[in-house]
UniProtKB/TrEMBL annotation:
Domain Co-chaperone DjlA N-terminal per the UniProt entry, residue ranges: 28-143
Signal peptide interval: none
Record-linked InterPro entries: DjlA_N, TerB-like
Full protein name: Tellurite resistance protein B-like protein
Entries under Pfam families matching the protein: TerB
Classification via Gene3D superfamilies: TerB-like
CDD domains from the UniProt entry: terB_like_2
């Protein structure tokens, strides 16, 4: 029986298409959270798409089909998700506390990519930060820093 189960699992893994990212891959989790944030306000702008593509390309040194495959895997995972826990737990296993705070800055940069910030985007990032153990203070500081980067100056009293 064990041999039969092992053969079944091996058969499943052999059927995965080339370039597929495995379950639990932190790159897919990161991309999925990015999609969750981008889609929170109901629209995904071209600026947001372009920023996501640049982020994934630079962060993971990917190009061409591999980059497209990661983007698609992240988009699909984000659409199938019922909550953020799956993605945040994958990332929590791979990121130290400083990297988790940095991740909030990246997500805020995505929010500001289209020049607008919505309550829904705020809420999504708040939930993600909470699940990743990022303090309210660090989350707000990252939001202010992202706003300052977007406006090219000081975020002031945001």
């Amino acid at each position: 029986m064990f041999d039969r189960l092992q053969a079944f699992i091996q058969n499943l893994s052999e059927r995965q298409p080339e370039g597929e990212f495995p379950p639990g891959d932190p790159r897919v989790a990161f991309a999925a959270l990015c999609f969750q944030v981008m889609e929170a306000d109901g629209t995904v702008s071209e600026d947001e798409r372009e920023m996501l593509r640049d982020l994934l390309r630079d962060r993971y040194d990917l190009a061409g089909e591999k980059l497209n495959s990661l983007i698609e895997a992240g988009r699909e995972a984000g659409q199938e998700a019922v909550d953020y826990y799956r993605f945040t737990s994958d990332l929590n296993r791979h990121l130290d506390p400083e990297e988790r705070v940095e991740l909030m800055g990246v997500l805020w940069d995505l929010v500001h990519a289209d020049g607008e910030r919505s309550e829904m985007e705020d809420h999504v990032i708040w939930r993600i930060a909470d699940l990743m153990g990022v303090s309210d203070r660090d989350r707000v500081l990252q939001r202010q820093d992202a706003a300052a980067r977007q406006s090219g100056g000081d975020a002031g009293g945001e």
